[in-house]
Amino acid sequence: xxxxxxxxxxxxxxxxxxxxxxxxxxxxxxxxxxxxxxxxxxxxxxxxxxxxxxxxxxxxxxxxxxxxxxxxxxxxxxxxxxxxxxxxxxxxxxxxxxxxxxxxxxxxxxxxxxxxxxxxxxxxxxxxxxxxxxxxxxxxxxxxxxxxxxxxxxxxxxxxxxxxxxxxxxxxxxxxxxxxxxxxxxxxxxxxxxxxxxxxxxxxxxxxxxxxxxxxxxxxxxxxxxxxxxxxxxxxxxxxxxxxxxxxxxxxxxxxxxxxxxxxxxxxxxx
Amino acid sequence: xxxxxxxxxxxxxxxxxxxxxxxxxxxxxxxxxxxxxxxxxxxxxxxxxxxxxxxxxxxxxxxxxxxxxxxxxxxxxxxxxxxxxxxxxxxxxxxxxxxxxxxxxxxxxxxxxxxxxxxxxxxxxxxxxxxxxxxxxxxxxxxxxxxxxxxxxxxxxxxxxxxxxxxxxxxxxxxxxxxxxxxxxxxxxxxxxxxxxxxxxxxxxxxxxxxxxxxxxxxxxxxxxxxxxxxxxxxxxxxxxxxxxxxxxxxxxxxxxxxxxxxxxxxxxxxxxxxxxxxxxxxxxxxxxxxx
Lengths: 271, 292
Prior knowledge:
The structure is a homodimer. Chain A is of the alpha/beta class. The first copy, chain A, has a single domain (4-261), classed as P-loop containing nucleotide triphosphate hydrolases (Rossmann fold, 3-Layer(aba) Sandwich). The first copy, chain A, contains 9 helices and 12 strands. In chain A, the strands form 3 sheets. In chain A, strands 5-6-2-7-1-8-9-12 form an 8-stranded mixed β-sheet, with helices on both faces. A two-stranded antiparallel ribbon of chain A has the order 3-4. In chain A, helix 1 crosses helix 9 and helix 3 runs parallel beside helix 4 (129-137). Residues 261-271 of chain A have low confidence and may be disordered. The interface between A and B is large, with 67 and 68 residues.
């Protein structure tokens, strides 16, 4: 990991809140600067979504003398996932914890990432083997921190508080929380609907209570799902949308946390 | 943290306890004696326990956040509306146990008696068990590796005194790993009726759901059918239908046709589902079903 400057974990206690979607777009956003080398590692062994979301289905991993080669989306954006090791995307990976841990160790040790500015590690939901292994194996390599994803409803926040609790216990700094699926704006009448109602105040109140930064809120936008299914960057597909702008603000805050500033004024809207 | 030596041949392997990687493992002697390959006695114990349980249904999904727990809870409520039907709901999501909140049972504790652990009763005919009831605070993270989670699931199946039950519904976390293998393994002698698989319409979900279907085939669990949640959102103001999670590859309908699996139904997005979950109430399922 000496050739990797910044390492960011993307976590959530809850499934389906948009971790992989966020990880992919964080990677895309950072890699828009062609001088920034970005690596995206998917350690969701059972449900590896990153190959599809990055438009890399069917790609295979190659081995060389210096280790496994990641699959490159762009010259400066490499990806690794167990999805690249399956003969078919429908193959179930039915492994217990120890075998999953072994795979994660291999990903971290044997992939030849090269010189990388940002390594983003996408995780499955929960606080179990994959998360413990990632933290354990990266413990000597200095993780910058974790970005925690949630949706507004209390059923999600409950699991997310556990994830925050996990970070404290294993001493991983928390960069902040992202609230996905905040609100849906009807394309016809523009009425705002809270489909996942923030009955206890959403991420905003939780972050105030726990004194953790809220990095931003991203609205529900059907184009996000479409872009993910097509394997394209939503930031490119709908650059002026509220969701894309929200993502960009969040990405900038993460870069600032990592101590790297990039002027992105042309994308900023007052928050 | 529990560690298994890298290169562990597996407790059932002929090399168990004998391989080079077994050196230094605390279980080496056990495996070498052949005891590791013997079936877990808990399987027979659970078979006995399950004799008073008529039907056992697993609720699965490869994908997280598609509404497994929401569905499990409402299936339980729906079945229990007939007061002559005894229903049990078991939550084996150890890291993210949502069932206590969804059932309005936060803060409840589990009691032990001579006949085992008592489930927490929502109604006289609806009992619930979850690791959530064993935590001192709902924010406590359960940071366990696979073997410890498996032990908890074994206890839930073996030691909970469910009594005479018509339907046992088992809510699971997303994935195809320890919890799922353990549930199927421990219930293997007790005849699982089958699995209901939950999805949302977009391909990123369906991809994981096909893996779950693949899992069911591999471990020989019959598939009752697929439920597609979050199908469509109807704007309360102008009634426009929006597909928030677009079925770019035809949604569950096309997947089920391809795989020759029943599509049990499609459920639209409705913010009231989230609000009522918070309140721990329920609504009869029929109002939420849209013709599929």
